[in-house]
Amino acid sequence: MRYTDLSSREYAELLSSSSPVPGGGGTAALCGALGCALGQMVGSLTSGKKRYAAVEEELQELMRSLEKMRAEMLALTERDPEVFEPLSRAYGMPKETEEQAAEKARVMEECLVLAASVPEEILSLCGRAMDAIDRIARIGSPLAVSDAGCAAALTRAAGEAAYLNIAVNAKYMKNRAFAEELSERSKEALAALRSHADKVYANVAERIGG
Questions:
Q1: Which site among 65, 132, 183, 204 is 20 to 30 Å from 124 CA-CA?
Q2: So what's the pLDDT on residue 85?
Q3: Contact 35, 161 (CB under 8 A)
Q4: pLDDT (tens digit per residue) in 85-128
Q5: Alpha-helical regions (H) of 91-144
Q6: d(CA 52, CA 122)
Q7: What is the full DSSP assignment across 33-47?
Q8: CATH number assigned to the domain comprising residue 129
Q9: Which domain holds residue 46?
Q10: How many domains does the chain have?
Q11: Nearest C-alpha neighbor of 72 from the set 41, 37, 39
């Protein structure tokens, strides 16, 4: 099943079910894709107008960048369930004997690292997308600036959701040195994203009198 081929109604229905996938990680990526798309929308509503001719080249570059990141986010929407399913199966592995317990621990560790890798990519993408959204909010049409603020809000939410998926996997890793390094790296990325998103949102709110 390709989750990105489902209608919004179908995806929401599946998400609400007891199925372990799709879950928070894939949905975070989908949210990030929508944030990128809204940023592109601001560019599309600005591009081609004489008033913005001086920034047309930069607008096009920003829109291409957001389009690429949107495609990557959609790919991660599909990838996250793929890496989570092995972890879901690993939880059910037997551990009655020492050999079984050791094998389960080995597989679990591999699966936890893999499951954390996708949301870490999502979080990183959110940071890069926020850079583009910030700039497009500044040079884009004031008539669409509220959409840039919405793009920032969605992208922040996507990054926050991705972080939680990193954290929950890191919590159960046996290699604590790796887990702590991953956690620290992710906390720093999240803090930077939140700070940047707050500035973009505040700037947009001020411009529209919110």
A1: 204
A2: 87
A3: no
A4: 888 888 889 888 998 889 999 999 999 999 999 999 999 999 99
A5: 98-139
A6: 32
A7: HHHHHHHHHHHHHHT
A8: 1.20.120.680
A9: 3-207
A10: 1
A11: 37
User: Given this model, what pLDDT does residue 207 score?
Assistant: 94
Closest CA to 39 of 24, 54, 61, 57: 61
**What's the full length of the chain, in residues?**
210
The CB-side HSE value for 85 (13 A sphere, CA atoms) comes to 8
CA 90 to chain centre: 25
Q: What share of the chain is helix, strand, coil (3-state, %, to 5)?
A: 85, 0, 15
Q: Where are the beta strands (DSSP E) in 60-208?
A: none
User: pLDDT tens digit string along 130-168?
Assistant: 999 999 999 999 999 999 999 999 999 999 999 999 999
In whole angstroms, what is the distance from residue 178 CA to residue 200 CA?
33
Tokens of 99: 């050999």
210 pLDDT above the threshold of 80? no
Contact present, 74 and 11 (Cβ < 8 Å): no
Dihedral class, residue 97 (left if φ above 0, else alpha if ψ from -120 to 50, else beta): beta
Would you state the structure tokens that stand for residue 151, as one six-digit string?
A: 């793009």
- Token readout for 163 is 């972080």
Asked if residue 23 lies in contact with residue 42, where contact means CB atoms within 8 angstroms, the answer is: no
31 residue type, one letter: C
Residues 6+ apart with CB under 8 A from 117: 83
